[in-house]
Amino acid sequence: MRPARSESMSNDVADYVGLIRAFTSGKISARRFEEQYMAMFKAATRHFPEPIYEILNDLFLDCDEYVADPDLRDEDDLDDQQLHERATQALTKLETGPTTN
User: Which residues have a Cβ under 8 Å from the Cβ of 65 and sit 6 or more positions away?
Assistant: First the structure.
């Protein structure tokens, strides 16, 4: 999945938004969100505009840094709450429209 120069927000983005909402509203766990988001992102063939791609990619990297087991987590890893915060930030950006970081 690479950014495209000029495309409007699509139903593909809505799929990501739906998954992120399910997590941020407590309908799915952090572990399940991480698994589903990583799988969705890796399987994506859609090209998104650069600002959208950056939001989705940043959240992918956050999911990659998430470690569910506290015994295996180190100081650079994200816990459930931190992943939730990052997902909430990404959702806000996707819903309000990306702006300059």
Answer: 76, 77, 78
pLDDT in tens, the chain (101 residues): 444 433 445 678 999 999 999 999 999 999 999 999 999 999 998 888 999 999 999 999 999 999 999 999 999 999 999 999 999 999 999 998 866 54
Q: What pTM does this model have?
A: 0.84
Residue carrying structure tokens 């409007």: 8
Other beta carbons within 10 Å of 4: 13
What is the rounded CA–CA span in Å between residue 8 and residue 4? Answer: 10
What domains can be seen in the chain, in order of their start residue?
A: 31-101 (1.20.120)
The residue assigned the tokens 């952090």 is: 30
Residue 39 DSSP code: H
Instruction: Report the distance separating Cα 93 and Cα 88, nearest Å.
Output: 9
Rounded distance between C-alpha atoms, residue 20 and residue 99, angstroms: 19
The tokens for 81 are 């709450």
- Token pair 């309000």 is found at 96
